[in-house]
Each structure stands twice: as structure tokens, then as C-alpha cells.
Amino acid sequence: DIVMTQSPDSLVVSLGERATINCKSSQSLLYSSSDKPYLAWYQQKPGQPPKLLIYWASTRKSGVPDRFSGSGSGTDFTLTISSLQAEDVAVYYCQQYHSTPLTFGPGTKVDIK
Amino acid sequence: QVQLQQSGPGLVKPSQTLSLSCAISGDSVSNNIASWDWIRQSPSRGLEWLGRAYYTSKWYIDYAVSVKSRITINPDTSKNQFSLQLSYVTLEDTAVYYCARGETGDFRRGMDVWGQGTTVTVSS
What we know:
Chain A is mainly β. Chain A is 0% helix and 51% strand. Chain A has strands at 4-7, 10-13, 19-25, 30-31, 36-37, 39-44, 51-55, 59-60, 68-73, 76-81, 90-96, 103-104, 108-112. In chain A, strands 2, 6, 7, 8, 11, 12 and 13 form a 7-stranded mixed beta sheet that branches. In chain A, strands 1-3-10-9 form a 4-stranded antiparallel beta sheet, with no helix packed on it. Chain A has a two-stranded antiparallel ribbon with strand order 4-5. Chain B has no helices and 11 strands. Classes of the chains: A mainly beta, B mainly beta.
């Protein structure tokens, strides 16, 4: 199984400041047939299901604000919120969908200072 | 707009079978680039993928090894839905269960539609 780790566990950031979350996979997530990294980022607010923000490590899903960006390749990935807004308070998860079993990171909780 | 609507009991007795359904609107369970997944979430296990069903010329079903001996995912084309059955449940199966739509193929993009979640408690 591909193991996903995230850091930090939690993050407290001032409104308007940058938040950076790291994700690491135990194997490369680059899919040879498509040359795409199969890494997604999700946002989950209390009482709600996870919401897909980014796929292929860096492609924002339609409708996701451009303050959210993803980067990385191979086994190391980053989610950046460039200017934190109050509505961004949530837990963020990375997920690999390169191979089954699909696996998620443990999550990073983002809060406002 | 694709929506997934979950249904099923929120309380199951130990050793019995957990049964949930996920009704699909705006898409077809036979869509040959979609997968229909079940995921659960608990404080102890986090987000745990349980399995999926998908159709590409024929039906394929994948299960997580951790539940493989107890799980059945069944697509129902007549009702355009898919279901989860988990047998011989224990307290460890207490979790919020989600259905979700993923994708198959070389350009898949993660799980873009989720059900609302069902809190399932295993208790006598």
C-alpha cells in the first residue's frame, strides 16, 4: 500500500497570510501512461464530506478559488493557500489515486490566528 | 449536476450486517469512465477507502484488503445506485460512511462528488 504522510498536523495562520501544507507518498505517484501525478487535495469542513480542490497535484478543480495552488512531483507535494480567508478554516487531506487501495493522508487542520 | 444520496440505518448491532445505498442522479452507474467508491472516516482510522465498482465493458469490483472478507459492493443498473454491505460488524466499524464518484482511465482526477455521509454506530 502507498502510505501518505502530511505535515504539519495543524497550522494557525493570520487572515491574509500564506498557509503551506506538505504531503509525502511512500512511492512515486507519477502514472507513466499519462505522465500525470495522481495526487489530489481535499478540503473538509465540520459535518461535511471532503471536497475536491486539486487533482494531478496542481490542477484546480473548476470553481476553486485561485488562492489555492498545488505543486510537487514524484513523492513530495505541497498545497498552498496564498492568502488565508476565514472560510478556509478546515482540515486538508492529500490522497493518492495512483493505485488501489486508494489512500489518504492523516490531514492538516488549518485555523485562524 | 451529479448528486449522490445515501440511505441506510445509523445503528447496527455487533455481528450483524451494515447495509447502505447510494442513489445517483445526473450520471449513470454504468458510466465507463466513473468509479463508484465507498470510504469511511473515524477518529482512529482517518479516511479509509473501502472499495469501488466500475464498468468498462464489464463490471469490476475492488476491495480494500482490510475488509475484503466482509464487504460487498453491488452496482444496481435498474435503480442507478450502488450499495455497500459489511458483514460481521464490530465496534471498530463505527464511522461516518461516504459514497463518492471517482474516475477510471489514464486521465483520472480524484473523487469529485461525494454523498452526504451516514454516521453508523455499532452497538448492542
